Amino acid sequence: MKPVSLITGGSTGIGAATAAGLLKQGHRVALTGRDADKLAKFATAQDAGDDIITLAGDTADPADVRGAARCVLQWWKRLDNVVVNAGFSLPGTLMDHTPEAMRAMVLTNVLGPALVVRECVPHLKESRGRLVLVGGVAGAEHTPDDLYSVTKWAVHALAENTRLAVAADGVGVTLVAPGTVDTPFWDSRGGLPGGPAMAAQDIADCILFALNQPRGLDLNHLQIRPLGQIG
Known about the structure:
The protein has one domain (4-224): Rossmann fold (3-Layer(aba) Sandwich). Helix content is 43%, strand content 17%. It has six helices and nine strands; from the N terminus they run E-H-E-H-E-H-E-H-E-H-E-E-E-H-E. It has helices spanning 13-24, 36-46, 62-76, 99-127, 147-166, 200-211; strands at residues 4-8, 28-33, 52-56, 81-84, 130-134, 172-178, 181-182, 198-199, 221-224.
């Protein structure tokens, strides 16, 4: 039976590269994202037939998260892997952000992953599956006036909190914490910063590595920088 994987933020960047890799490995893949057109375009390009479904929605919306999980279970009757990738950043610093924009980022980057964990972990216990949360180097090191960094610290905490909660149930939990990655993430921040950067495929390969660990091994933390990135 083909394994089933759910990826949030799956239309571009790291999520899309991970989805493509899982499809090549014979998985059935469900992708979520806010932009239905981007999801559909990516899915069509994969030419994967019934092995891919797209579920437009907001990971900060409990109803959307619940609906996505239920749809996967209705279609494929199981859930083996979940990759929590959806998130965004704001241009400028904490001092520049409006309270409304700050709220949106905190809801997407912190509440969203927590909702996905709450909704999906019971199904991962049944399959003894794996959960990957995409954090970041920003979540491991302080950055002045950077609320995005604060949200990624929260994802790192959620990963360890969840690991402690589900380790006895046979669920693997991995935090993948990338440094600078060349993806559409930077479009809202004036473009990719100078210096070395990784490709989305590099991080997708790390996620696949975590998901492909043999049963009984729990790979908990992968922090990856492009060679030459200091902070």
